What we know:
Layout: H1 11-25, H2 29-39, H3 43-52, H4 76-81, H5 86-89, H6 93-100, E1 106-108, E2 111-113, H7 115-124, E3 135-137, E4 143-145, H8 147-157, H9 172-182, H10 188-211, H11 233-242, H12 245-252, H13 257-271, H14 295-304, H15 312-315, H16 322-334, H17 345-351, H18 355-371, E5 379-384, E6 389-394, E7 397-407, E8 416-419, E9 422-425, E10 429-430, H19 433-446, H20 448-453, E11 456-460, E12 465-466, E13 483-487, E14 498-501, E15 510-511, E16 525-527, E17 531-533, H21 536-543, H22 552-560, E18 568-571, E19 577-581, E20 585-586, E21 597-598, H23 605-612
Parallel strand pairs: 5-19, 7-16, 15-17
Antiparallel strand pairs: 1-2, 3-4, 5-6, 6-7, 7-17, 8-19, 9-14, 9-18, 10-13, 11-12, 11-13, 14-15, 20-21
Amino acid sequence: MFHWLAFKGSASEVNSIVNSIVNSITNSSRTRHELSKRLGISAAALVFGVAGLASAQAPTQRPGEPLALRPPEATAGQVAGQSQGLAATADIRPTLFQLMQRNQAQVVGALAVETSLIRPLYVAARALPDRPLFVIRNTLGTYQLTVEGNQVLALIQDAASRGLQTEDYWNARLTELHKFAVVGELPANDALEMELSLAQGLVRLASHAAHGRVDPKLVDDETDLTRRPFREYETLAAGLQRGQLQAALDELEPKHLAYRRLRDLLKSLREAPAARFRALDSREVIRPGVTHRVLPQIRQRLADLGYGSGSPAELTSNVYDPALVAIVQDFQTRHKLEPDGVIGPRAFAALNTPLAQRIQQVRVNMERWRWMPNSLAPRHVFVNTAHQELAAIEGDREVLRMKTVNGRVLRRTPTLIDRFTDVRLNPYWSAPASIAAKDLVPKFATNLREAQELGIRVFDLRGQEVDPTRVNWRQFSIQHLPFYFRQDPGPHNSLGQVKFNLTNSRAIYLHDTPHREDFPKTVRQFSSGCIRLEDPLRFALYLLRDQPEWTPERIQQFWAKPLENPDFKIDLREQVPVYIGFFTVEVPVEGGLNRVKFAPDSYGQDGRILQLMQPLNVNAGGQSEF
C-alpha cells in the first residue's frame, strides 16, 4: 500500500528529502513517469510509499500520520493488491477533503501544501466536500484539467504582464504533470498534486497581485506599511463560478491610476523591439551648436521615447540646433539630470539604459503601489521622494504640484501614510535629539554667537531656559544630552513661516524653509527627513480652502510679526490624507506612455526590492510569502 506523507517542516527540508530519495530510485524523469504509468501513481508517491510500508497495516489513521489515497469503498487489501487499478478507480475527493481539515503544512507528492491558505478558496467556492476545482475525472478513470484549471494555468503563465514571475507559481515538475493532464492521462495521485498546485499558485498569485510580493519593512525599516494578508477569496471564487478568473484577478490589483499607467508602460516595454534600445556611441561630449555624426541616432532614440516630432527632416540632421537642445533639456529634466542641454556621460547613460533594466524599474514601482491601500482617498496629497515633488490629487485630477526638498540618503524620508491635522503659522522649531547632538551641540561648541543669532535657545529637561555661555558643550554626546533646543520664529527659523503637522511618531512633517536656493536644483535631497515645500503659502491655502476666513492677506499679516504671533495653530476642518513614497518611475497624464519620468535609485531601494523579488523555490511548494 502506498501512502502520502504528512510532514511538518520547512520547504527546503522537504525539497532535500524528495530530491535525494527520487534520485536514488531513478535518474531520469522519463523513467519516473514510466513507473507512474505502470503503477498508477506518481514517482514522488512511490518514494513516500516506500517510506510508509512499515505502517501500511495500521487499521486507523492518527493525526499527523500519512494520508492514504484510495477508493473509499475499497479495503486496504484490495488497494495493496491492485496497484495497477489505483489510478483507474481512486477518487481524490476524500483525500482532498481530509487535507483541507488540517492546519499544518502537508506534503503531497513533491508539493508542500499550505492548507490554511488554500482552504478558504474551496470554502468560498462551495467545493467541499464534493469536488475538486481544477481537475476532473474522465471516462478512463484518469484525470485532466477543468476549464478553470486551464484558466489558472494561463494566468500563471501570464504573470509577467502584472510585473510578477511565473517561476513563483510553477516549476518543471508541474510542467511534466501537465503533459499527462493535456491528454487526460493524469493518475489520481498526480491529479491531487496538480489540483493543489493550481489552488496554491492561484492564491499566491492573487495575493502578490493585490498586496505585493515583498514585505515593505524589509525595504524601508522606518515605514509603517505592512503587507496586508490575503482575504479576498470571495472575489476569486466568484471569478471561478462566472468563468471570469482573469477579470477577478484584475479586480484585486490596485485601483490607482498611476498603477494602471505603469502596467500599460510595462506592456509597451515588453513588446518593444530590442533594437530600439541598442547602445549609442557615447565616447564624446556633444554641446549645442556642433555638428556630430551620432546626432541622427540620438534624434531617433529621443523620438522612440516620445520626444520630438520624429519627422524625416529632423531625424537625418546631424546639427545640434536649438530645437533639439530644447528636446534634450526636456529629456534631462524628466530623468533627474541637470537640464543644461549638454549630451555628456549622464545623458548618454539615460539614453542607453537597457530595455531589460527599464522593465525591472517598472516592475519595482508596480510593487510599491501594491503596498499602498487599494484605493486612495478621493482628495489626497502625494509626495514622491524619488522625484522630490508634491501633488494634490482630487479623483484622477491633479490640482496642484510643486517641488520639495526631502531627506538626504543617510536621513531619508520614510514611506508613510498619514494625514494633516493642523497648520502652524510662525512655528517654533524644536530640534530632535539626534539633530541636536549631531548638529547643534557642535555649533554651540565652536560658534556660540552664530547659534544665538539664529534664534536657538537652550532649555533643561524641566523646561527652564539655560544660559548657553555657562555650559561646557564639549562634554555632551547623543547618549548624554540633558537639554533640548528650540528656535524662535523669524527669518532664520528652520521651518520657515509655516509648518504642516502630521500624526506619525517619527516627527516627520511638511514645512517652509529659509533655504529657497535649493529648489532650482535638480537633486533636492538635503533635509533630515522632513519635507520642505517650494510654495508653502499656496499649499496652506489649499489645505484651508474650506476655511475662507484664512485669506492670503490674513496669513501674511501673521507672518509680518512672527514674535507677536508665535506658533499660531489652525486646526484643519478636513484632515487631508497624505501618501509619502519613493517611486522612481512616473507616467504623467500628459504624454501618456511617452516622456516617462525616471529618477535614480538614490535611496538604494529599487535594487533591494529586485533582490527580494527573486523567485521562490516551488520545487516542494516554496516558502510562503503571504
